[in-house]
């Protein structure tokens, strides 16, 4: 099995091979693929697994994103995508070979983090990825959606207007970019995605209504993208599904939520992606009106340069910790002294006794602050070498706000 890089000339074969591996068909698109979820794929970052007879039987690729870290810095990351092997060539080492080659290529580009959305949770941990952000679905029954009178609620001095997604793509792009730069765990949406209408709504051509919020000066600072389902002929109501709410602060989120929850002829409103511990349910007069679905893992993180990754993120407590990190997939092992002072970290190799021993995938899970080290200690995934190790780690890795990622790729 040969693993080789792809080029733009391989686009047609890459798309066909990828779809075959997933059991899908490309469908009808424009000449440049515009409007398809795969149209923004970067073929200079793609890989083919090639069988002995010269036919491509597997694909892997990566998007060039920025990831916002705790503390607010946005750093380049590889967004792994389009990973699949034809059913005729599975269990022959193609996936492992592509993953090994891909991580090598990512390092050569100078990127120290790789991220992905895992179709199956058991696949990617063995390659060093760990779940790092989580999302909830929140369903609110419309007839129980009254808001409580809140003593500390901030007054909304802005305004809302109703638009169609086709008519405001430039505004959505600008608002999302402002949002992702302030939200830990958020990924950039490159302009090419908006230009090609790649991905999911509201980027895609799928028709969507947009509730756009403007601040007191008329500057857009949030939006909600939604669509209505089929009308229930008996109850004369529909389900309103919100793809995403992008808001620069909680007051804007509340204004957008009030608007969609006040829609006529609606039986329920489904918010597809709500961050963990979001306050919306607590703003309702009836807290049970908001039903939280199962928490789903979303963004998986893989560290490729442990010291650099730990130095790059921001910190909100002082202290030090010795981490003994095992990276079985790449055959690497390191012990690092992490020292944090005034929000900045130093991380150097050390021979001191470790406080925690962990796999690189579990370091990926705690890296953004979405999973506490003590949770993984209690689960048996991380080994704490003294009673206070997990407490110190929890304090160090905590963040001011939970990481959250909305972008689908």
Question: Quick gist of this model?
Answer:
With 409 residues, this protein is of the alpha+beta class. The chain is 24% helix and 32% strand.
Structural write-up:
The protein is of the alpha+beta class and 409 residues long. It has helices at residues 11-22, 94-108, 121-124, 169-182, 191-196, 250-261, 280-283, 306-312, 360-367, 373-379, 389-397, and strands spanning 2-5, 47-50, 56-68, 74-85, 113-117, 130-131, 134-141, 159-164, 209-214, 220-228, 238-247, 266-274, 290-292, 296-297, 299-303, 319-327, 332-341, 344-349, 356-359, 383-384. It contains eleven helices and 20 strands. Strands 7, 8, 9, 10, 11, 12, 13 and 14 form an eight-stranded mixed beta sheet that branches. The protein has a seven-stranded mixed beta sheet with strand order 1-2-3-4-5-15-6. A five-stranded mixed beta sheet has the order 18-17-16-19-20. The model has no long low-confidence stretch (mean pLDDT 95).
């Amino acid at each position: 099995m040969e693993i080789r890089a792809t080029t733009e000339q391989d686009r047609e074969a890459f798309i066909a091979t990828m779809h075959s591996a997933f059991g899908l068909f490309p469908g009808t698109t424009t000449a440049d693929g515009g409007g398809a979820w795969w149209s923004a794929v970067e073929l200079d970052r793609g890989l083919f697994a090639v069988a002995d007879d010269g036919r491509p039987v597997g694909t892997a690729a990566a998007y060039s994103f920025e990831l916002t870290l705790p503390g607010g810095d946005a750093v380049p990351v590889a967004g792994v995508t389009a990973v699949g092997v034809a059913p005729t060539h599975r269990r022959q080492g193609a996936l492992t070979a592509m993953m090994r080659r891909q991580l090598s290529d990512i390092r050569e580009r100078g990127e120290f983090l790789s991220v992905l959305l895992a179709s199956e949770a058991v696949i990617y941990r063995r390659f060093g990825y760990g779940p790092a952000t989580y999302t909830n679905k929140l369903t609110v029954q419309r007839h129980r959606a009254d808001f409580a009178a809140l003593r500390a609620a901030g007054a909304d001095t802005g305004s809302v207007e109703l638009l169609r997604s086709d008519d405001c793509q430039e505004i959505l792009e600008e608002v999302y970019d402002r949002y992702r730069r302030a939200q830990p765990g958020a990924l950039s949406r490159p302009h090419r995605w908006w230009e090609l209408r790649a991905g999911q709504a509201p980027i895609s051509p799928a028709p969507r209504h947009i509730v756009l919020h403007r601040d007191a000066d008329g500057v857009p600072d949030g939006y909600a993208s939604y669509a209505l389902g089929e009308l229930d002929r008996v109850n004369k109501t529909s389900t309103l599904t919100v793809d995403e709410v992008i808001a620069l602060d909680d007051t804007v989120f509340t204004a957008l939520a009030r608007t969609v929850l006040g829609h006529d002829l609606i039986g329920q409103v489904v918010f597809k992606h709500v961050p963990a511990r979001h306050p919306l349910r607590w703003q309702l007069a009836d807290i049970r009106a908001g039903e939280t679905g199962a928490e789903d893992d979303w963004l998986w993180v893989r560290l490729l340069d442990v010291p650099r990754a730990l130095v790059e993120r921001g910190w909100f407590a002082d202290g030090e910790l010795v981490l003994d990190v095992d990276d079985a997939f790449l055959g690497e092992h390191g012990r690092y002294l992490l020292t944090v002072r005034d929000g900045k970290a130093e991380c150097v190799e050390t021979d001191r006794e470790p406080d925690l021993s962990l796999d690189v995938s579990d370091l990926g899970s705690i890296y953004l602050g979405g999973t506490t080290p003590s949770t993984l200690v209690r689960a048996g995934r991380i080994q704490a070498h003294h009673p206070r190790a997990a407490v110190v780690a929890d304090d160090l890795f905590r963040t001011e706000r939970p990481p959250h990622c909305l972008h689908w790729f």
